[in-house]
Predict the structure.
Amino acid sequence: MKVILFIVTFFVLGSNIFAQADSITLKEAIARLNKALIEKDAEVLKAVLHKDASFGHSSGWAQTKEDVLNDFKSGKLVYHKIENSNISLVAVNKKWATVRTNTHAEGTNGGNAFNLNLHVLQVWVKTKKGWQLAARQSAKL
């Protein structure tokens, strides 16, 4: 009986440890994405954005991964600040995760300044490259 209890405890605690490790890695991916958006780091963006990424803005504008990369190269979209608060890992498993945040973003879009408080939902997938953003949608707070 003690052996069975030990095995069950090991698997329960072990799964929690792995979930926490994935969460830490996911939080690092979120931080890398925000930093890359501000610094226009194309290499990091290529790594953290899934090939089929959909990036939805509160204005209704949507971008693909290629759109994001091209708009940064051209200077159409420039982020000066991205600050997340109330980060909530809604669901995390071995293959995907959903994250909700309140985000303050400042920058310019087409030369027009923006200063927005947003509620953001992100869907991340775990690939061989690590956590990659598959979808993001924001709404104004």
The first helix runs from residue 2 to 39.
